[in-house]
Each structure stands twice: as C-alpha cells, then as structure tokens.
Amino acid sequence: MSVPTDFQAKLDVDDGTATVWLSGELDSRSAAVLDELVTRAVEQRVRRIVLLAGELTYLSSAGLRCLVFAHQKLGRTGDIVLVGARPEVAETIRLTGFDRAIVMQSRAEP
C-alpha cells in the first residue's frame, strides 16, 4: 500500500453537517483547498463539520491554522469533529492544545 503525498479533499453537506474527507499532506501548499471547502460549508449554514482524517498523513502548522480558522468561521454554536486521525496528526493537534476546542474521535459515531 502506498501512502498518498498529494493532498485531496472532498466536501459533502447534508442536514446541517458538512463532511470533509481528507487525504495526503495538509500543509502550506494545500491549506487553501481545505479553507475553500470550509467556507463553502459555512455559507450553507452547517452546524457541524466532520473531518474524516484517516488518510491524512501530515499536518503542518499551516494546516493546523486552517483548522483553527475553520473553528472560528463555524462560530461558538458549531462543532468540529476530527475522526480517525493518525497518531502523528493527532499528536500535532494535542501539542498545540487545539484538541480542547474540537472533538476528536477514533472512528465515526452516529
């Protein structure tokens, strides 16, 4: 199995929840892609953004900034849920304390 190095993201909005599938490396070159998807989701007045991160192989400070901006755009009444983050990605989030602002799950819950 080869590990993807190129970033890919896909957005689906359904019933107030935006689901974003992430794969590859979320860094300074790819953060704008996620930012655009989050902006589109917020424009549709979602209450929750679920980031499926099982295939996300790397998260740089620029990628983390993008998640922080997503949290700000969603507002206080919205939730960001990060699902299935690899240990190295989850550790980056925990080291910054951002895990206290979002919900981190090992797998999707109903």
TrEMBL record:
* Annotated ranges, domain STAS: 7-110
The protein's matches in SUPFAM superfamilies, at most eight in alphabetical order, are given as: SpoIIaa-like
Task: Please indicate which superkingdom the organism of origin belongs to.
Answer: Bacteria
Q: Name one GO molecular function term.
A: anti-sigma factor antagonist activity
What is a single Pfam family found in this protein's UniProt entry? STAS
Q: Which InterPro entries match?
A: Anti-sigma_ant, STAS_dom, STAS_dom_sf
Family designation? Belongs to the anti-sigma-factor antagonist family.
Known PANTHER family for this protein?
Answer: ANTI-SIGMA FACTOR ANTAGONIST (PTHR33495:SF14), ANTI-SIGMA FACTOR ANTAGONIST TM_1081-RELATED-RELATED (PTHR33495)
Name recorded for this polypeptide: Anti-sigma factor antagonist
